[in-house]
């Protein structure tokens, strides 16, 4: 199969992974128009169901891959990714062969492009004279990238209950499924370092440069700060594995799982990447080439550059342009706003209505994830309603069929999920006996089944009923989505990103820097409240570092405001006033904390 994809996207933004199902078929929808997006490949059962859906839709043969087949998980992932590639290539070929430059398909492609793109720059009279072959070469699809959450890596078992070898764990088999696909794209590793997973990539030639310096399967690390980027990058480089992109994400102003830093704000983080970028690339290139030489493999050349991108809370073209210009970024990620674009993501109609009607107070950072990591959530989702209804009926927890988040061994030899009915029933009995306090019980009951809830919308939006009627939806939008209302066409959202159109946002929406600061201050306040009256030396030290980092961040933004006018003067004044207010709130919280220490 001819892979038409280029690893250089025509657009300056990408659509990050969202849940298990919200972007599962986004590449099929947007890659033909040059837009890159990311599929989660952690749920092979969902991918198999979606392969069946799209095979029927495009009248293609479908042979199911049964659970009992050898290496079924990896095979399902490969099959869905190859199908996605085939469908994208089919659509791109159709666009290229649609005839005149003035055909509807070519014009749609051109209209979506950023103003800097060569096709966009050509005027009407020039278009007539342009060679068709040259024009076709400029029409490139977006990348079909995939995401592996490194923490989702449970060991699997055969029918006899015997643990399978390490390469059959969830994360490693997912990587194998991707590596065996025909994609020329990126794997995004998120949620931190998994040494076994990173080392496993060494087993596949596609992760190393070929004789022309091209790396077919490229590695991207999603990180929250420079230190983690350097540590993970060095680990991979020593194995000859090159990091093609560092995708920086806000610790709290993002969707899905939130990996909060110790109060490090995104402005100073991006500033550090900007200052250290050349040294980072030189360090990793030297180490990587040393190993490639030892392996007798082709070495990296200047063609292999590191990209630095950012995602999390961006809401206006002014913010997008400022980030790319001032911090010298290679691109940005726009996630949650695309949940309101049916042409780009798969959101069922009920959940879409709930998002449109949701208030800012309905978005919250929850304890829903069985991973024990804070999880952005929506109070009005059908998944939340189902969770509460089960508790009210005296049957908390979810039936656990997929078991992707089964890690707890407190009460069983084989790991189980903390959101499962089995686990929550055991905890409820302990609570009734007075063996655990109310706070521990509340934290247990907050856990929700993400495996079913995050995958259901992809099926529902395609008219398919999820198995066992588990149709309640969990949605994990970033706080930024609270300021967007209504649904939008793909053209409208892309025009908004590029400043050709201004989608009307809520007037209360603060600048993304201010919003993130608000979120961190609220996070710190809640952490302080959780500690009660007694404060350990470790907690005291943590809070002091957190406060100090927030204060340094505020000082950074104030100084930045005197040097860079990244919005209108009126907006700058508003930002400075909000910073002053938040600085006062931080000071008040510090005084409250000091009173506990005396």
Fold and architecture overview:
Among the domains are: 348-474, no CATH class; 510-598. Helix content is 45%, strand content 8%. It is built from 22 helices and ten strands. It has helices at 26-30, 44-57, 72-96, 104-112, 118-121, 124-129, 132-138, 170-179, 195-200, 226-237, 266-294, 317-326, 349-357, 382-392, 421-432, 438-445, 450-453, 456-460, 490-497, 512-530, 537-563, 569-597; strands at residues 13-15, 36-40, 144-149, 185-190, 217-223, 243-249, 307-311, 331-333, 363-366, 375-378. The chain has an eight-stranded parallel β-barrel, surrounded by five helices. It has a two-stranded antiparallel ribbon with strand order 9-10. Helix 10 packs parallel to helix 11. The protein is globular, with a radius of gyration of 24 Å. The model is unreliable at 1-6 (pLDDT under 50).
Q: Secondary-structure blueprint of this entry?
A:
Blueprint: E1 13-15, H1 26-30, E2 36-40, H2 44-57, H3 72-96, H4 104-112, H5 118-121, H6 124-129, H7 132-138, E3 144-149, H8 170-179, E4 185-190, H9 195-200, E5 217-223, H10 226-237, E6 243-249, H11 266-294, E7 307-311, H12 317-326, E8 331-333, H13 349-357, E9 363-366, E10 375-378, H14 382-392, H15 421-432, H16 438-445, H17 450-453, H18 456-460, H19 490-497, H20 512-530, H21 537-563, H22 569-597
Parallel strand pairs: 1-2, 1-8, 2-3, 3-4, 4-5, 5-6, 6-7, 7-8
Antiparallel strand pairs: 9-10
């Amino acid at each position: 199969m001819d892979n038409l994809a280029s690893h250089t996207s025509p657009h300056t933004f990408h659509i990050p992974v969202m849940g298990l199902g919200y972007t599962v078929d986004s590449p099929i929808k947007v890659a033909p128009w040059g837009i890159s997006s990311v599929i989660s490949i952690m749920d092979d059962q969902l991918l198999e169901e979606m392969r069946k859906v799209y095979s029927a839709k495009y009248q293609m043969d479908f042979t199911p891959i049964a659970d009992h087949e050898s290496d079924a998980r990896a095979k399902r992932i490969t099959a869905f990714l190859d199908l996605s590639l085939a469908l994208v290539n089919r659509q791109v070929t159709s666009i290229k062969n649609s005839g005149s430059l003035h055909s509807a398909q070519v014009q749609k492609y051109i209209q979506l492009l950023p103003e800097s793109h060569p096709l966009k720059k050509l005027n009407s009279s020039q278009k007539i004279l342009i060679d068709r072959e040259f024009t076709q070469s400029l029409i490139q699809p977006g990348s079909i990238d995939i995401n592996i959450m490194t923490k989702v890596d449970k060991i699997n078992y055969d029918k006899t209950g015997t643990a399978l070898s390490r390469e059959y764990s969830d994360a490693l088999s997912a990587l194998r499924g991707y590596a065996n696909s025909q994609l020329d794209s990126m794997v995004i590793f998120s949620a931190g370092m998994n040494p076994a997973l990173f080392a496993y990539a060494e087993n596949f030639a596609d992760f190393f440069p070929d004789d022309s310096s091209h790396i077919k399967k490229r590695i991207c690390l999603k990180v929250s700060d420079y230190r983690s980027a350097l540590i993970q990058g060095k680990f991979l480089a020593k194995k000859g594995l090159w990091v093609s992109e560092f995708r920086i994400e806000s610790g709290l102003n993002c969707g899905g799982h939130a990996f909060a830093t110790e109060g490090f704000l995104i402005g100073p983080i991006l500033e550090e990447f900007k200052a250290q970028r050349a040294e980072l690339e030189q360090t990793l290139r030297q180490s990587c080439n040393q190993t490639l030489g030892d392996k007798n493999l082709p070495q990296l050349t200047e063609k292999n550059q590191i990209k630095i991108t950012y995602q999390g809370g961006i809401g206006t073209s002014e913010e997008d342009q400022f980030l790319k210009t001032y911090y010298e970024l290679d691109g940005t990620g726009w996630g949650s706003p695309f949940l309101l674009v049916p042409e780009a993501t798969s959101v069922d109609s009920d959940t879409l209505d709930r998002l449109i009607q949701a208030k800012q107070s309905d978005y919250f950072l929850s304890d829903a994830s069985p991973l024990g990591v804070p999880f952005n959530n929506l109070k009005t989702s059908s998944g939340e309603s189902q969770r509460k209804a089960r508790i009210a009926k005296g049957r908390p927890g979810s039936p656990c069929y997929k078991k992707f988040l089964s890690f707890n061994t407190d009460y069983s030899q084989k790991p189980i999920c903390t959101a499962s009915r089995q686990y929550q029933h055991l905890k409820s009995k302990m609570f009734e006996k007075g063996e655990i306090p109310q706070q521990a019980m509340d934290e247990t009951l907050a856990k929700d089944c993400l495996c079913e809830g995050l995958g259901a919308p992809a099926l529902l939006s395609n008219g398919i009923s999820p198995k066992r009627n588990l149709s309640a939806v969990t949605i994990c939008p970033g706080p930024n989505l609270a300021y967007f209302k209504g649904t939008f066409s793909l053209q409208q959202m892309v025009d908004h990103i590029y400043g050709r159109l201004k989608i009307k946002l809520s007037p209360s929406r603060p600048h993304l820097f201010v919003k993130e600061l608000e979120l961190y201050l609220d996070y710190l306040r809640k952490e302080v409240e959780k500690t009660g009256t007694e404060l350990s030396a470790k907690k005291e030290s943590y809070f002091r570092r957190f406060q100090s980092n927030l204060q340094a961040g505020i000082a950074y933004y104030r100084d930045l405001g005197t040097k860079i006018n990244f919005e209108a003067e009126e907006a700058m004044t508003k930002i400075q006033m909000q910073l002053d207010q938040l600085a006062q709130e931080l000071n008040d919280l510090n005084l409250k904390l000091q009173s506990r220490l005396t």
